[in-house]
Every structure is written in C-alpha cells, then in structure tokens.
Input
Amino acid sequence: GIQVEQSPPDLILQEGANSTLRCNFSDSVNNLQWFHQNPWGQLINLFYIPSGTKQNGRLSATTVATERYSLLYISSSQTTDSGVYFCAVKDSGYALNFGKGTSLLVTP
Amino acid sequence: NAGVMQNPRHLVRRRGQEARLRCSPMKGHSHVYWYRQLPEEGLKFMVYLQKENIIDESGMPKERFSAEFPKEGPSILRIQQVVRGDSAAYFCASKGQGSQPQHFGDGTRLSIL
Output
C-alpha cells in the first residue's frame, strides 16, 4: 500500500514561532487531508488539499502532487496549537492512509 | 448541522464481553468508514460501508469483529469476546458522493479490564 512519512516526529516551539510540517507519500493520490488531534483526542479537519495551496487563518497548506509531498505551515503558534498533526492520503482505494504524525508542543 | 456522531464516547468492558460502537454519519452522507487508533499510533483503516453493503473490510481482524450499516439507523462496529489488545480509540468517518473529504467523529475510547 501507499506509504506516508511525516517529519519531524516531534517539535517544541515557543509561543509566537512559525513552523513547517512535512508529509511525503510514495504514490499518486486523489485525496490528501491534514488533521489536528487535540489533547482530548478529537480529530479536527484542517485541510482537504489533494493539490495546490490553501490558507485558513494562521494555518496554510501546500501539496505538490507531482513531487509527492505536502507541507503544513503554522504561523505565530499558540499553546492551543499543541497536539498531534496527521497527514492522511488516499490513492485509488477507499481508505485514508495515515502517517505517524508530528507531535507539537507550544510552550508559553 | 450536526457532524459525525459517535457513541458512547467511552466504553469499559471486561474480557470476554461484547462491545458495540455506534456511528451516525453526517446528514446526506452515505459512505461510512471505521478506523482504529492504538496508543501512540496513527489511525488504521478497518472497514468501508455503504447502506446495507460492506464495500471493503480488508483492515478488519478476521475473527470477533463485524460491522454493519443498515438501511435505517446508525452504523455499528461490534467486537465479540473482547481482549485487552482491543483497547483503543475507534473513529468513524463519513463522506458524501464524489471527491469529498472524510469527516471524522470524536471517537469511542474502548478500555478492556
């Protein structure tokens, strides 16, 4: 099946800093989603972005499908951004394939 | 405009009992997916259903696990004779027709004593 690698695995930021999270995938995809899993375990949809660039407030994402990667940008980070960020992709099958996530801790 | 609803949020069972997890998809969605998240891991696909049909169950364990999505009512994930290794968070997602994102519920945390 399709492989999904996320980097870095762990990240510690001071409040106000910016960061870039990366997702590499091994094959062509027709769906790519970014999620934030908060400390309560809820999975929050951030972006549906099989290609192109999108922005939502302090967050933005870019997927370069031809080069098989996606980037999630977090600007002016806040403590509430802490949690695990997952990239998930779907090829021609039915299921989303999740990476192992980037665990982010934003300190005051 | 309710999202994907899962219940219960937390479920505690003793070894050997049955666990039933429910999922009501978003209004207008006819595609339902179940995923399992073991501690400190990402989500793994289990099964994909449409109304009254199992489309892909390639991620389901061969024994003790079953899923259904009846014509009326929620989708059910059923685990018989639970064991300690079944302790996990179980997430349900739903999707509309065509190229749409999957929307996830808040999950059911299953603990086996």
